[in-house]
């Protein structure tokens, strides 16, 4: 059964730093991997979606990579800002169950200090 | 802009009440999902539907039921609300993966914070 873990569980950095969030999954048979952002008390906002055939996706200051064979993805945030403070979740869509459901990691809670 | 809309942001209900949470998507997605999210427990799947009138139990279906009479609408029903169902409820939708489809990621609604007193 697919399991997703995220390290670290929480991270606090000063404004302006570049940072990396890590996501690991146990089964490489996936359709895609998606990174989400969640602000306190809100829903999930999709940041980046990487198809299984892709190595990385970029959007503004965000870059997500995927190494399917090793079961890893990283989310790189450049020049962090206080507005980046949120919980970041990764999710994979596995082949089993006909790809119906995503499997979510527990999230990394990020605080960017001004 | 494509959307998943949850009818209420905040709800307060009494123990024993029947509660309906509504979710509507405008993307013609086949799949729709209901999750609950609690501190320390992450996202847990309650039910999902892969087509009209079709439903599958997720990880924690007890105390819940669902209805999908139309493709765009997926309702979560708490038959008799209890205090342990106080939670954030999140609806999501997605396409079924198929060859040639570019984007079959999840799209989430804004969430409904339900408090049962």
Explain what you see.
The complex is a heterodimer of chains A (114) and B (117). Chain A has 114 residues and is mostly beta strands. Chain A has no helices and eleven strands. In chain A, the strands form two sheets. In chain A, strands 2, 4, 5, 9, 10 and 11 form a six-stranded mixed beta sheet that branches. A five-stranded antiparallel beta sheet of chain A has the order 1-3-8-7-6, with no helix packed on it. Chain A is globular, with a radius of gyration of 14 Å. The relative contact order of chain A is 0.34. Chain B is mainly beta. Chain B is 0% helix and 55% strand. In chain B, strands 2, 4, 5, 6, 9, 10 and 11 form a seven-stranded mixed beta sheet that branches. A four-stranded antiparallel beta sheet of chain B has the order 1-3-8-7, with no helix packed on it. In chain B, a hairpin with a 2-residue loop joins β7 (64-70) and β8. The interface between A and B is medium-sized, with 23 and 26 residues.
Keywords:
heterodimer; A: about 110 residues; mainly beta; six-stranded mixed β-sheet; about 0% helix; about 60% strand; B: about 120 residues; about 55% strand
List the helices and strands and how they pair.
The complex is a heterodimer of chains A (114) and B (117).
Chain A: E1 4-7, E2 10-14, E3 19-25, E4 30-38, E5 44-51, E6 56-59, E7 62-67, E8 72-77, E9 86-94, E10 103-104, E11 108-113
Parallel strand pairs in A: 2-11
Antiparallel strand pairs in A: 1-3, 3-8, 4-5, 4-9, 6-7, 7-8, 9-10, 9-11
Chain B: E1 4-6, E2 10-13, E3 19-25, E4 31-38, E5 42-51, E6 54-57, E7 64-70, E8 73-78, E9 87-94, E10 107-108, E11 112-116
Parallel strand pairs in B: 2-11
Antiparallel strand pairs in B: 1-3, 3-8, 4-5, 4-9, 5-6, 7-8, 9-10, 9-11
């Amino acid at each position: 059964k697919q399991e997703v873990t995220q390290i670290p569980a929480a991270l606090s950095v000063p404004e302006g730093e570049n940072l990396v969030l890590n996501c690991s999954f146990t089964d490489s048979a996936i359709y895609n991997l998606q990174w989400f952002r969640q602000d306190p008390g809100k829903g999930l906002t999709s940041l980046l979606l990487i198809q299984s055939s892709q190595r990385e996706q970029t959007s503004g200051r965000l870059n997500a990579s995927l190494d399917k064979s090793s079961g890893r993805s990283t989310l790189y945030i450049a020049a962090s800002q206080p507005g980046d403070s949120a919980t970041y979740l990764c999710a994979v869509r596995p082949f089993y169950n006909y790809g119906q459901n995503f499997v979510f990691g527990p999230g990394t809670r990020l605080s960017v200090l001004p | 802009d494509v959307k998943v809309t949850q009818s209420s942001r905040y709800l307060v209900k009494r123990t024993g009440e029947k509660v309906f949470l509504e979710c509507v998507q405008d993307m013609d997605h086949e799949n729709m999902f209901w999750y609950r999210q609690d501190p320390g427990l992450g996202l847990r799947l309650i039910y999902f539907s892969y087509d009209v009138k079709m439903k599958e139990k997720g990880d924690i279906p007890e105390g819940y039921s669902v209805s999908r009479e139309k493709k765009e609408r997926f309702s979560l029903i708490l038959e008799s609300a209890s205090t342990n169902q106080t939670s954030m409820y999140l609806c999501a939708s997605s396409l079924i993966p198929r060859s040639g489809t570019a984007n079959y990621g999840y799209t989430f609604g804004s969430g409904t914070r339900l408090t049962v007193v």
